[in-house]
Amino acid sequence: MYINKLNTHIIPFKFEYHAPKSVEEAVELLSRYGEEASILAGGTDLLVKMKQRVIEPKHIIDIKRIKDLTGIREEEDGIHIGAATKLRTLERSKLIEEKLPVLHEAVITMGSVQIRNMATIGGNLCNASPSADAATPLLALNAEAKIVGSEGERIIPLEEFFIGPGKTALKPDEMLAEVISPYLPENAGTSFMKIGWTDFDIATVNLAVILKLEGEVVDECRIALGGCAPTPIRVHKAEEFLRGKKLTDEVLEEAANIVSGHVRPRARWRRAPPEYRRAVSRALTIDALTIARKRIEGLEVNRGED
Amino acid sequence: MMAQGFRLIGESTPRMDGIAKVTGQEVYSSDIHFPNMLHARVLKSPYPHARVKRIDVSEAEKLGAIVVTYREVPDVVYCPRLVSTPEATYKDWRVLTGRPLYVGDPIAAVAAESEEMAQRALEAIDVEFEVLEPSFDPLDSMRPEKTSIHERIMYMGKEIKIENNIACTMEIEQGDVEKGFSEADVVLEREYRTNRRYHCQLEPKTAVVRPEPDGGVTIWTTTQSIHNTRLLIHEIFGIPAGKINVVKTALGGAFGSSIQTNIVVPIAVALALKAHKPVRLAYTREEDLHEHCSYQMIFNLKLGAKRDGKLTAGSLEAILDIGAHQIQAYPLLGCLVGWWVSLYKLPNLRYVGKAVYTNKVPSCAMRGFGNPQITWAVESMMDELAEELGIDPVEFKLLNHVGLGDLFWGQGPTVKSIIKSSGVEEIVRRGAKLIGWDKRPKPGEQRGRYRRGIGFGRGFHTSSAGGPVPGTAVDYTGAMLKVNEDGSFDYITALMDCGGGTLTAHAKIIAEEIGVPLECINIVRSDTQTTLYDVCTHASRGVYAGGMAALQVAREVKRKLLELAARVLDAYPHALKIRPDEERSQGVIYVEGVEGREITIGELASMARHKNWGTIAAVASVRQGSCPPHFTAYFVEVEVDTETGKVRPIRVVAGADVGSVINPKLAEGQIHGGFAMGWSMAILEDTPYDPENGDLMNRGFINNYKLPTPADLVPPDRFTVFFANTYEPTGPLGAKGIGEGALNPVAGAVANAIYNAIGIRFYELPITPIKILKALREREGG
Amino acid sequence: MRIRFKLNGREVEAEVEPNTLLLNLLREQFHLTGAKYGCGIGECGACTVLLDGEPILSCLTLAVEVDGREVTTIEGLAGDGELHPLQRAFLEEGAVQCGFCTPGMILTAKALLEENPNPSEDEIREYLKGNLCRCTGYVNIVKAVKKAAEEMAG
Lengths: 306, 782, 154
Ligand SMILES: Cc1cc2nc3c(=O)[nH]c(=O)nc-3n(C[C@H](O)[C@H](O)[C@H](O)COP(=O)(O)OP(=O)(O)OC[C@H]3O[C@@H](n4cnc5c(N)ncnc54)[C@H](O)[C@@H]3O)c2cc1C
Ligand code: FES
Ligand code: FES
Description:
heterotrimer; B: Aldehyde Oxidoreductase, domain 3; 5-stranded mixed β-sheet; 30 strands; C: Ubiquitin-like (UB roll); 34% helix
């Protein structure tokens, strides 16, 4: 009787609302209520899922009033972004735009202004959608997740954070506190690409590239792919292939083939069949590498002509 | 002939309901609220085809909810759309059903003090179903071994049997088709399949019903026709018509989805009558997506032409997937052939139309009533045929088009008339020039990743369903106009404004005709009890047919004003004139050439009161004697990304012949909106079903029913709209309609532009990036 | 739960449940029906209101979350019977058809002009992409925002 449970006018069930002021307090609530609790950040995923009756938490822990969870800090090991930092804050941050342009490029494609005024970076990662747009650039950046729980704090690579669609490495009493992104290698060029059906759509495929050249030869390349597997992934095989090579057309093609070979079809893919995702991940790889290279060379980038 | 010498017609004026709309004060039915009002929810079938074996509502009632089930509603089989005469109306609906025919079919309903309580009560209802075999495709549904969706339905008061799930059919033949094809030098035959789109009007369907002490009900609802809503509630519940009052409210878009009375209305009436309290039933978006959609059509189209470009014959077999119920399938079969034969002259033709039941959401009219679908197919084939013949598509289409002086089938075989105004040549030639048609690329010759192409599509729509003889469509409008004591006017009509600015247009017609400032005209918020019958705001009839009623009452009131003024001014009525006095916000009646002999309408109306001459007023109920086509032509430039299959619009040039343009900015707005809808019809929208559970693949959520955003369409400086200089002699002050013609040719133009860019034709809508990429890969030898 | 917040410039209080949505609070308790329900899941923007001056979706915001903050709805835009330049421009440019999207559209546009007083057409189209309109094809809406910007610049 699924159809009769839906009612997006309201949230059709009761829950208790908690608004902790500190991380400790939040963790304490998490360990008290365990699986019955959900963290509420921007709510743009959580409230939709509640309205769609995918989850019905008995306790909502709103983390937006926790000061320690918001803000962007420049530290030696990289840029620290509080999990409850709004996408809009990232969009407006000169620091992000300059130091992590690939993340900035992704953030401005996400949702609408309204969504970005509400949504947080932590929410995007913890929601763990295979096509989460902030995930691919952060994976490419070798970002880490700072997790806090009743047992204390731990830091894991973001690549280990995503486990499956909607699944993360967080234990029931844990939460994401921070994302830590190392700085880009010097003179690196980056690019983020996304394909959706309209300009306001989740990604059918997204892709982030970080490229560093040594002369004409690839010194380092990192490629992250979204929407093509149960989680957003790094395509290490393609990265290894590219190392030490010149970016000729043939090399680009081959790298693109390796990337598209990582498309792992899922049973519930309804928006686009695997062939389409393969073709597009190929095209986006070539595009992204080409743009990243142009950016290293200081060339202007524009798509198509108007 | 063109419109000349008008003061208001042809000038852009803000819509009269605009201030309420920009300040958030406008009241839509979903905004109606009463202190003791109950909130309703509907129990819907989770199966596409089933029978209710057992239903237990006791738990819901224990929660304090009022519940009605299919067993308690009147045992009346009806058709929710009352536009056609009984000969063209098939009835197969009940308010609630024990034999659900699609996922979402209403079975029972509850009302409680809050929406949350209603929701809880709804979930407490226990139902056991016997699941039956569903059909999702019309071709499959027609197979004799398939389970019947409706065994029997009602027609003209009698039961009729349904065979092979074919709801109704129509066949028409003229001339000798075989001979026609044998005379042709080129014959093309293709199968085209359209999408099943969702209107996605921004306001979901809503009804608020208040039971009245006299046993009647007052209704506020999303409707395109308040009078037909009243008639239907009378038919189902037997409440005397005078005790049913349907009140006009603003409508948050409809595009055809509220021509029929939406299912929320009878359900809310049933609940309100049982609860003895006002009931609000507002659908959620996901319910709305399970309430209505457009007709999906499969066409087998064949056209033949001689080398010189003259068409010799055409045949069309149309299979319509109508979903689980008939709303207007039979009238549509008629209109469809009408649209088809009124595009291009076919000396010999054959048409077979079949409407087929499937276990899906019922289809209804959606802006253009089948015309966008058939025009897409015909415009695609005409483009293809022109290429085969080696003739420029623009010339080929102009050569064969149905135009001035030709017989026009308008709303189908029962409504024929002669075309008295046409700007087809003008809009096509000028549009071609503006887009640079001569310089467009050759199909398929481009090689790069991004390929551009220009496509042309033309079409028309009828303005109203009027005609010289009664036909099978009801089409007339009532209007009342009275002069207030201060010289202002109350204009009273049942006609709904779906957003097009129709009533502002009426006010302009009245002000123009009488000769008073526009602000003098007050559009009365009315209801069924205080208005004359109006059939419906559909078929682009609001200005052409409704406006004629406004013009007639204006003329009559003007005549009376002049007669009375003649007494006062001691002059002859025919020597009097009226001029607008903007400063006094009044009309002034004066004797031409004699200074000082004048009186304001306010003074005259006051005098009429003091001297007991009575109210100066007029009433009219008007039927138009034809339904002239308004014509449109679109030239669209697109860019195809051959690596992702994505298409984006680059430039749009749209020409329209709408007769006199009453309000240019609002008319342009119709074109802009029509383009947006046609664009996404061509490349984006569809509502596929999940064969596993029989539900919509998107389950009603519009995050999986995308509409274009402003960023997906063209910016203002790349969208050119122009109007032809025409004057429709039968229209009010020369006007025709526009609402549907604004959409009809768009998908054809877009499809032709895609062909021009990449050299591939698509025979199925929408032309998604997935299909484009697949076709490109196949051609390039994948 | 009792919440206090500023609504269209006035301090107000309300008694809400944890699961009360801001949209329903505004419409049902304060009878401010300018914010509309169009989808309930963030896709249409009809429910847009300004929270501390920034456009957000009231259909995905818990009422308790606005405690201590400032909410502006379309009803709070026109001061003393004077229309806001955006409201006037929407009227004059024919940017309103059915009007159901209009309140949300105007509020988003207001935030745009505050942030960027002289936006290009492309910037307007990008900023408004979370506000669906099924009637206008957005052309006159973009024109209206441009016109209001020019007027506000003086
Ligand atoms: C209309 C619309 C458009 C969208 N467009 C895009 C898009 O273009 N790209 C895209 O990637 N996404 C998009 N989204 C999805 C969504 O907006 C983003 O994923 C957003 O970043 C989620 O953040 P939030 O703060 O709103 O998360 P919430 O909804 O508050 O939370 C999401 C999930 O994460 C958990 N959570 C949140 N914070 C933490 C934390 N610190 N620790 C542990 N768990 C936590 C919550 O419990 C919940 O399960 C869209 C959503 C909507 C409604
Ligand atoms: S109702 Fe909030 S975005 Fe649609
Ligand atoms: S004016 Fe109708 S949705 Fe925008």
